[in-house]
Amino acid sequence: MRFVWAVVAFVLATVMIGAGIAQRTVFQGPKTQTETISVDDAAPYVLVDGTVLGSNAGAQTFRAQADGTIFAAYGRTDDLEAWLARTDYAHVTLGDEGDVVTAHVDAEAPVKSDDGETVPLTPAGSDLWLDEFQQDDVLVASVSLPADMSLLVAGDGVEDAPQTMSVTWPIGNATPWAGPLILGGGILMAVGIVLYILAVRHLRRSRGPRRRGLPMPVTEPIDVREVEAAGEKGVISASPSRRQLGGRTRKLVAIPVAAVVGLFATGCTADAWPQLPAAQSPSPSASVVVPEGQEAPPAVTEQQAARILDKIADQVASADETNDANLAATRLDGTALATRSTNYTLRTQLPDRAALPAIPTGDVKLLLPEAYEGWPRSFFAVVTDDTTQSDKVLAVTQTDPWSNYKLTSIADLTAETSLNVAPAYIGALQVQPDSPFLMIAPEDLAGAYADVIDNGDASRYASLFSDTDPFRSQVADNRAATKQEFDQTGATTGTLTFATTAGSQEPISLATLDSGAIVAVTVNETETVAPTTSDAVIKVDNNPVVKTLTGQTQSASGFTTTYVDQLFFFVPAQSSNQRIQNLGYSSDILEAKVKQ
Question: What segment(s) does the record annotate as region Disordered (predicted)?
Fold first, then answer.
């Protein structure tokens, strides 16, 4: 009977192992699904819509083939279409029946050169891309894009884009019972081997009675001493004992059984075993609600903003090394560019003049992007300066889809306050310049603060601003020291006056979750030195900065020096009992002129 059970175990083991191996080989089927994309009407760009990439589940592997360098980038579909408005392109989408269709799209607003030729776009390096790839001849990119994102494919922007492309998705062809079948078959095989050995052993022990043989001779005792005297060590049997034979046999049997089971068990990957459902931990309810009326996505993602800020820092650092204002203008605008241009002028003629602080390249501690699909679009960022270990707040703006993001304002973050701002993946709406819902409209903020600087507590706006403002105290101390120094030599022949006005740069204001706003503005401070008599002149021999910027050493009418303050405020809602708080500031010389 043991032989029967051993045979049954062998048969079942063979069936189970064969079924498991068949599931992993001949019955498994393909592991991927590929959709070929062909573009008949050549164009310099191909836009593969997110609906095509997401038409099958799983990560997407995109492949394009053409001679030369192949470029690919992905981003929001709306951003890509806006960028492509200046050029022809092929748009790959899904048809009504789910098939892939391609349509040629003509340029809506092409840029023409002086001779009437269309100016081609350069795809590499745009701030709109969330990521980009470049490879020669064959490009393979693994992405996982949602439906609202698309993939842009091109060559160099002039030559035709690749016309042979494909998208590949993985197919879920897991065989969860292959592993158990193979392992179970291995165990049954081991059981069958054991049963077979036991059957053989039982058969040998249960043989019938043997025939009686001839009488055995009488065994004589052996005298050990005689044997030792003859030089022998004793009688040694040529046959091993039953205990020795049994133990050795078990070892020889155990080795192949363990090897077979281990081989089958280790030959199966994770998808060959049943997957238990993961334990579901309760997810916290959302603590941030998208404000009513805010439907647009944030202008930039955290990764995108970090890459943009790195580009700005690198470009400005290169401009600082050569005092190149034109190079700086590729990444700076507004007040940030104006102050750096003035600094370059001074450093060119005054070797001892210090450079302005570098744009920080540390961690982005806070990002507040504007939730807006059009242009211009902006974001605020708080970045740690690795050199000084201090935090700086930056305002960055992109004027149109084809322009780089440019830094417009930068200041040292000084206020230790907790702002109730939306997370970066939600963003914030821009507050209108004339908004009546804030304690003061953004367009009036700079003028009101300028009045407070000049008039202090006597200003009609003083009650709106916080009493703890280190910048106002710094301005007051600097003016007092400058006036005292001037009075020592020029009080009898001239006058020194101070004035503060709103800067020319438009405010940037993004809403907070408590109906307030963070507002970036500029304020101009002027110092005017003028003679009090017609016989007197104002000399600036001892002021190399004014002398360099004006190109004059003296003037009968006097000189006016302008400093620009870059300021960031938190402006609470109209109904709030809070005051306007100065979050950060920086002050640099802007210009010097002969007084008219």
Answer: 276-300
Nearest CA to 439 out of 583, 571, 577, 581 is that of: 571
C-alpha–C-alpha distance, residues 560 and 571, integer Å = 32
User: How many Å separate Cα 359 from the centre of its chain?
Assistant: 19
Handedness of CA 567, 573, 574, 576 (dihedral sign): negative
> What are the boundaries of each domain within the chain?
1-29+173-200+254-272, 32-170, 302-594
Provide the token pair at 314. 């690198």
Alpha-carbon span 503 to 49, nearest angstrom: 44
The token duo for 297 is 């996505």
Helix (H) or strand (E) holding 526: strand 517-531
Tokens of 385: 């300066």
* CA–CA separation, 554 and 40 (whole Å): 73
Neighbouring residues of 31: CB distance < 8 A, sequence distance ≥ 6: 170, 171, 173
* Sequential pLDDT tens for the chain (596 residues): 767 877 887 788 788 787 777 766 766 657 788 899 989 888 999 999 999 998 888 889 999 999 999 999 999 999 999 999 999 999 999 988 888 999 999 999 899 888 888 899 999 999 999 999 999 999 999 999 998 999 999 999 999 999 889 999 887 666 666 677 788 778 878 887 887 787 777 777 776 555 555 555 555 555 545 445 444 444 444 444 444 444 444 444 444 544 544 554 555 566 566 665 555 544 444 456 676 767 899 999 999 999 999 999 999 999 999 999 999 999 999 999 999 999 999 999 999 999 999 999 989 999 999 999 999 999 999 999 988 889 999 999 999 999 999 999 999 998 777 789 999 999 999 999 999 999 999 999 999 999 999 999 999 999 999 999 999 999 999 999 999 999 988 888 899 999 999 999 999 999 999 999 999 999 999 999 999 988 889 999 889 999 999 999 999 999 999 999 999 999 999 999 999 999 999 999 999 999 98
Q: At what angle do helices 442-455 and 470-490 cross, to 10 degrees?
A: 50
Instruction: Concatenate the DSSP letters of all residues of 153-198 into one string.
Output: EESSSSSPPPSEEEEEEE-----TTHHHHHHHHHHHHHHHHHHHHH
Burial of 239 (0-12, 13-18, 19+ CB in 10 A): exposed
How far apart, in whole angstroms, are the C-alpha atoms of residue 387 and residue 383? Answer: 12
Q: What is the token pair recorded at 24?
A: 């992993």
DSSP, collapsed to helix, strand or coil, labels residue 572 as coil
Q: Are 426 and 508 in contact (CB under 8 A)?
A: no
DSSP code per residue over 69-95: EEEEEEEEHHHHHHHGGGS-EEEEEE-
352 burial class (0-12, 13-18, 19+ CB within 10 angstroms)? exposed
